[in-house]
Amino acid sequence: MLSFFFSSPRTIRAIILAAFIIPLSSTSIWAGGLELPDNTARGFARAGASAASVSDPSALWFNPAGLAHARGSQTLLDFKITKLQSRFTRSSFEYDTASKTLQNSDDFPPVTNQENPFVSPFFATSFDFGRDDFTLGFGVFGPSAHGKRNYPVDGANRYMIVSSDVLMAFYTLGAAWKPKKNFSVGLAIQWVDLFRSQFGLMVNMPIAELSGAPVAPTESSQYDVLFEMDVQDRFTPSAVVGLWYQPHPRFEIGFSSRPLPVHLRSSGSFTLTPQGQTMTNILESMLSVTDNSVNLGLNLPAWFRGGFRYRHLDAQGKELFDIEADFVYEMWSVLENFDVSLGQGFSVTFDEDQDPEPIEVAPMQIPKKYKDTYSVRLGSTVHLDEDFELHGGAFYESGASPKTHTNIDFTASERVGVTTGFTYTFG
């Protein structure tokens, strides 16, 4: 990760910070629902422990009350580069139509995510207008997540996901008020813009299903059809509130929350692409689609973040290092299903001498059964000199997805890890 920071009028400086994550569990890839801990290089290097310590424009994300500590005019431009290395092995069972039982099979080799590294920028700026009790901030950034996946179109993964490309932006306007030296409150109003949401997965469509005849629970690649959808939800409102309190020069407390969930209701279009000559002939001769509209509904959770910070000061009151512990609770149980509805322009022809018969496609629910998650984050910054700071952190996050509904579209498993990074100031 790389972060550039500029402040004025007192100083003009650039801060470059690098951070990386060391996973401590080889089976745990993703956590906290759909997101990683956490945005910005400094926040990530501290394992997301920033609710009480944030004092720059990134407070728009971590805790809007922290804007009150951003003195003068400040601008933060941050780039996070992530590489999702996931590996999936499908259970080696197939349905045997003769015995009507599940039989062992070795036909499913492992598959891995083939997507390139994902770059997510973070921009925020703040102004105090020469006042000691008020700061205004504006930012454009996305959630702390990896937005792309790309798996083999003919792999064992194909009925779960083939590809995804999701880009979301939070256009954020925030303000902090500091009525007392040791207390501040903040509010950030957000416009959530899901301007790209593309998914692809394989659908198996045996011809017998179109006629309503009973079908054995088996599969054949000759009936595979690639279903791809491209949907958007360009405006959904949201907000984050925050508090900061310093009961003693050595101790600080921070609290922030997105108190309400974000209900995304996206719409767009879909395409059906047969993967073999059999389905090509069937779709051309039997199935007609005149309305390729699609709607997708999903929810992002309300969350609560609290932090307690200890500052180690020298005799002159200068901070030498700090230690902060944060607890984050995310209400991912709001994501019960992915709700999908298709247009009503389907018709099927069983006899070329008969008129096409319309097909009513009922709304679909793709069950996720997510549960609420929690994470514990510990972070520290050591001030080695005026120009150099060393950051470190460790975290644990519980998983959002129960094992019965684990999927590789968003692998929401539990995870532990450590992070580190540094800040060098020049200019």
- Principal-axis shape equals elongated
If you average the pLDDT, what whole number results? 85
SSE class? mainly beta
Percent in helix: under 10%
How large is the radius of gyration?
25 Å
Distance between the termini: 21 Å
User: What amount of the residues lies in strands?
Assistant: over 45%
Order of helices and strands: EEHHEEEEEEEEEEHEEEHEEEEEEEEEEE
Low-confidence stretches: 9-13, 22-33
Number of helices: 4
Number of strands: 26
Tell me the major beta sheet. 19 strands, antiparallel
List keywords for this structure.
mainly beta; 4 helices; single chain; 19-stranded antiparallel β-sheet; 26 strands; 427 residues
How does this model look, in words?
The protein is mainly beta. It is 5% helix and 54% strand. The chain contains four helices and 26 strands. The strands form four sheets. It has a 19-stranded antiparallel beta sheet that branches. A three-stranded antiparallel beta sheet has the order 16-21-22. A hairpin with an 8-residue loop joins strand 21 and strand 22. The two termini are 21 Å apart. The relative contact order is 0.18. Residues 9-13 and 22-33 have low confidence and may be disordered.
